[in-house]
Amino acid sequence: MNITWNAGVYTDHFSFVHRYGEDVLSLLDAAPGSFVVDLGCGNGALTQKLAALGYRVLGIDASSDMLEKARALHPELRFEQGDATQLSLSTPADAIFSNAVFHWIDADKQPRLAAGIAGALVPGGQLVCEFGGYGCAEHVHAALERAFARRGLVYPRTFYFPTIGQYAPILESAGLRITHALLFDRPTPQEGENGLRSWIAMFVKKPFEGMEDALREAIIAEAEAELAGELRQRDGTWIIDYVRIRLRAVRPR
């Protein structure tokens, strides 16, 4: 994954990620007792939801900080550190679940991700996932891009937000059969009157790496001023223009 997480801040102030992810669980139709892997489990909130549904679960994440938080919050569950693009399971999974993860993996690594998932599933096993789709948070990224450009800087687009048409062939090339695919808008409220600034600090890290604090603050303040009319509500709440892609795919028997 191309981001480093602050697990404490994420858990305390960005719980909307796993709250929205709970809806994705409805796509799973594995039988109770099935072995389900939560790929990119973060702080384990959805791993726990999977366990509550009666599944045998394993949470996998690349972030040691997130895994430390997951183990502290859910000591009864099993978590392992691992790279989603190098997935290797000692026991094949009946289902692999993933929420808000794939868009953090670079485009050139997506075929390896899909192949690893397909190889880790039993015949008839399923992948259920949701992640950022084409146009996700585009108002924010475009405003930041313009602020960078006005200073002669390049704003790197480090996120992978595909269309269904772009992503479906990747899963199909890995041998998976898609049974559900949806791209949809999901405007997402943020916490507090500094919601946009906090969101940028949590999720838009790489473009600001190595930048002096004063310049970073000036760019963010400029984006806030530009976006206030579009994304800030009358009560001060910021709404980020999320777009999600939701998929279910099956490894043929």
Give your account of this protein's structure.
The chain is α/β, with parallel strands linked by helices. Helix content is 36%, strand content 23%. A 7-stranded mixed β-sheet has the order 3-2-1-4-5-7-6, sandwiched between helices. Helix 4 links the parallel strand 2 and strand 3.
Spell out the key features of this protein.
253 residues; alpha/beta; 7-stranded mixed beta sheet; 9 helices; 23% strand; globular
The succession of helices and strands, N to C, reads HHEHEHEEHEHHEHHE
Strand content: 15-25%
Which runs of at least 5 residues are low in confidence (pLDDT < 50)?
none
| Basic shape | globular
Number of helices: 9
Helix content class: 25-40%
Q: Structural class of the secondary elements? A: alpha/beta
Number of DSSP E strands: 7
The N- and C-terminal alpha carbons lie at a distance of 31 Å
Largest sheet: 7 strands, mixed
- Measured on Cα atoms, how large is the radius of gyration? 19 Å
Average the pLDDT over all residues and give the rounded result.
Answer: 92
User: Biggest sheet, strands in spatial order?
Assistant: 3-2-1-4-5-7-6
